[in-house]
């Protein structure tokens, strides 16, 4: 009897063993299948977005195409006045200031009167010119009379030749007086009009030589000024220059004609131009050269004296696929790009390569010709994460 009981116990234990050993693999397979189903479900994540929503949230799509990446060099620099359009105005004659009509910051046009002075020297020059005109007129009348008498053999040859010499001498003196006035900044037309005018003979006008803005003013009503000290500074800042500092180690990379982006250090303004000139020598004290860039400043954004950075493109190369850096996002610790499919945009993992300040090379994960989100992908990422939370971890 004991043997039979032992035999039955053994049979029951064996049955239980086989039952549990068979159930365990079945459970593990089920868990594996569920895991595979979960992963497969994640790979089918999609985000739907309409054209109206793309416009509203500033989302842009683009086609995956070859592109260029650029090797750049950042150089420090400073905005300066165009030296050909900057002038210190010095009175051409000394005198007493009668009127001041412009101040620092005022806009001026070429020929605008900025100040008026009373000048004895100027009065003397004008008087000499006007007297010269009368002297020439008198000499011409005398010469004409003597010539007629000479032709009729009434006057002597000596008197005729004296009249001729006096006319030539008076014309020379008038010519000298005219050039003296023109050396004071007056045009030939203005000088010729003096003989018809009734203008104050002492009045000397200080005018702007070109259109621009008054940068500095150093003149006061009633003070005495001379022809050595500037009274105004005028600059045309519609165009400015930028001087970039080129270190000796970078001289081989920087050349005339290279594209350059000028960026204000506060980041408020940027502009594109090209290197116009590179000094052919190295400053002994700094061991640097200077690259010159000319900027259009018609809007007045660039202020002389401001520090800037110049990003110079020194080399470039082609890549099979290049996308803006704004297209690349991180989803679940992976670099992804939202790629268009038949039923929306999917976050597709990509492998990246070389990059520059604006673009990045895609080595795999995005094929040429595919549509992808180039900007505004954070909107899709947010929708993906929201849908995942609402769906218990899955986005549909």
UniProtKB/TrEMBL annotation:
Q: Does the keyword Glycosyltransferase apply?
A: no
Q: Which residue ranges are recorded for the region named Disordered?
A: 28-47
Q: Which residues cross the membrane?
A: none
Q: Which UniProt keywords apply?
A: Cadmium resistance, Transport, Zinc
The record's InterPro entries line, in alphabetical order, gives: Beta-barrel_RND_2, BSH_CzcB-like, CzcB_C, HH_CzcB-like, MFP_Cation_Efflux, RND_pump_MFP
Residue ranges of every copy of the CzcB-like C-terminal circularly permuted SH3-like domain listed in the record: 321-381
Q: Where does the CzcB-like barrel-sandwich hybrid domain lie?
A: 85-236
> In what residue span(s) does the CzcB-like alpha-helical hairpin domain sit?
125-182
* Gene3D superfamilies on file: 2.40.30.170, 2.40.420.20, 2.40.50.100
Annotated ranges, domain CusB-like beta-barrel? 239-310
Q: Name one GO molecular function term.
A: transmembrane transporter activity
Q: Name one GO cellular component term.
A: membrane
Specify the superkingdom: Bacteria
Q: Does the keyword Zinc apply?
A: yes
BP-aspect Gene Ontology terms = copper ion export; plasma membrane copper ion transport; response to cadmium ion
Start-end of Basic and acidic residues biased regions: 35-46
Known function: CzcA and CzcB together would act in zinc efflux nearly as effectively as the complete czc efflux system (CzcABC). The CzcB protein is thought to funnel zinc cations to the CzcA transport protein.
Q: Which family does it belong to?
A: Belongs to the membrane fusion protein (MFP) (TC 8.A.1) family.
* UniProt protein name: Efflux transporter protein
Organism equals Candidatus Scalindua brodae
Question: Which lineage is the organism of this entry classified under, starting from the top rank?
Answer: Bacteria, Pseudomonadati, Planctomycetota, Candidatus Brocadiia, Candidatus Brocadiales
